[in-house]
């Protein structure tokens, strides 16, 4: 009854839109920018570390990937909060939006001890790489700090779900921007040292990341409990635990968590295998993957927008608008990838040289490793151009299917695809002993077949059954 009264007097214009490009852009652009800020934050970490030497940069990439893989199950499960919030908003159950979000916060806190139990698995994975002693030490340091700050990382990933679900992504963008500024400043001071603060190197990069995440998380929670949000969603009355909402979040979110864990574990396997091919291959692949991160992570903003809009239209039982929003997301994604592709094709040398070690700081061997890896890195960047166009199809269709509630199928499809790619790399690099840059060609070729599967799933219309069953 109260919901009906609230909906009568509060009708945002966003609900009158129908999934066209403008509709998607309202949600996607702030999310794309916020993801870009997160990417820039990570990119700067590794750029600063690269000036110390390839070992520090490679350690940050390797440790960061393992940390993401171990955290991804929990953050992936919690991320389904976006779709649940969007479905309630579309179904005009506005006050349930805040209650759904609070259940995700409780799950985040409960997950922290479980996350700590996975730390030995990370150390075991590092042992499989047969890394140089200095890189292994740096890698463990970076990894341990990020993992023990797990509560910050989990809440940092849960906090934007409410706002992306209701389609008000500008606040997420602003929080990410503030976190980025703090992170960059802290990284510079903590990595290199300034005044009374000693140079901490890799450890400083990890602490800077956590500090930036704290800032953005505090901003989002402050907005959630603000007067404006409370008037619309009763956020200050949403603290009660709800087993039905938690059960739904676990039922639909766990497949997403498993999927994202399998995806990150497969990606980490790629990094492990490239790094095990030697310091030149490790450096070349690290540079390529750092730039791939710049190209890919902003696309995740489009994925979140696709999940949010499709979830909203599923809640409103409007399958036609859900389909339009998906195709609109594809148009925007390809436009972005075209810009990135131009840089990858025509400026690979410039992109590679950004990571060149500082002559005054790095050792002679570090400079020799970089110079040997430079041609390979340029080659891999050019091949990655095709890779980023393929990623657009994957993120948009995967986001749309998640928003429609088709999370189990997405879990199996993504898991099988990514591990098939990892197996292909192993066969090419370790069975046939081809060089790293040729192995990368095979990885991209195999990966490029996956969008056909997701496209066929979407075209089959099986996700529409969730429209009929929307709450």
Keywords:
471 residues, mainly alpha, 20 helices
What's this, in brief?
By secondary structure, the chain is an all-alpha fold.
Helix content: over 70%
Q: How is the biggest beta sheet arranged?
A: none
- The first-to-last residue Cα distance is 16 Å
Structural category is mainly alpha
Q: Oligomerization state of this entry?
A: single chain
Please tally the helical runs, counting DSSP H or I stretches of 4 or more residues.
20
Shape: globular
Number of domains: 1
**Contiguous uncertain segments of 5+ residues:** 1-16
Membrane topology: Multi-pass membrane protein
Subcellular location: Cell membrane
Pfam family, one: MatE
Keywords: Antiport, Cell membrane, Ion transport, Membrane, Transmembrane, Transmembrane helix, Transport
Structure description:
It is globular, with a radius of gyration of 22 Å. The protein is 82% helix and 0% strand. It has 471 residues and is mainly α. The longest helix is centred in the last third of the chain and has 40 residues, at 364-403. The chain has 20 helices and no strands. It is a multi-pass membrane protein. The chain crosses the membrane at residues 24-44, 64-85, 105-126, 141-159, 171-194, 206-226, 260-278, 293-311, 332-351, 379-401, 408-432, 438-455. Its main location: membrane.
How do the strands and helices of this protein lay out in sequence?
Layout lengths: L1 H8 L11 H30 L3 H25 L2 H10 L3 H23 L2 H9 L5 H16 L1 H16 L4 H23 L9 H23 L2 H7 L9 H33 L3 H37 L3 H28 L1 H6 L10 H40 L3 H25 L4 H12 L2 H11 L4 H4 L3
